[in-house]
Specification:
The protein has 152 residues and is mainly alpha-helical. It contains seven helices and no strands. Keywords: Membrane, Transmembrane, Transmembrane helix. The chain crosses the membrane at residues 67-94, 106-129. This is Glycosyltransferase 2-like domain-containing protein.
Length: 152
């Protein structure tokens, strides 16, 4: 019962919800409920947060394979096909901003997509090698320390 400490920074709520559901518990949707999320102040802290979400997604899929969706692989595919991804992001951003008559924001909006998807993908790759955010989990990892220094 309760939150699993292996999910110290991310995914603990989804993990608990899934385990409660598997145990026969009922999860309620309450439309009037409010949740406060703090947005990141800088593009770097935003990207760092996306990295954390990416590794958490892998940990959740490992624990709950039925939660897997092909959509989760899109950021990793973007890494593999980076030029195609960048062109698609640029064209999509342009189309969106032309419709809103805000073309001046093209580079900022495009950069935000990149700073969301690429750190998320790198976090997913990191999450394949390290199983948890606790110091113990990182110490147990068989991941080369250089990889941990670069991606953590």
């Amino acid at each position: 019962g309760g939150y699993d400490e292996a999910f110290a920074l991310v995914g603990e709520d989804e993990d608990l919800s899934r385990r409660l559901g598997y145990a026969g518990g009922k999860l309620l949707y309450i439309p009037s409920a409010e949740v406060l999320h703090f947005q990141r102040d800088t593009i770097k802290t935003w990207a760092d947060n996306m990295f954390v979400y990416g590794k958490g997604r892998v940990w959740l899929i490992r624990r709950h394979p039925q939660a897997f969706s092909l959509v989760f692989l899109l950021p990793v595919l973007a890494l593999l096909f980076l030029p195609v991804y960048l062109l698609c992001i640029l064209l999509y951003s342009l189309q969106l901003l032309v419709r809103r008559r805000e073309v001046k924001k093209l580079w900022r909006v495009s950069a935000l997509y990149v700073c969301t998807h690429l750190p998320y993908a790198l976090g997913m790759i990191y999450g394949l090698f390290v199983r948890g955010d606790t110091p113990e989990a990182i110490a147990r990892s068989k991941t080369p320390k250089l990889f941990l220094m670069v991606f953590h």
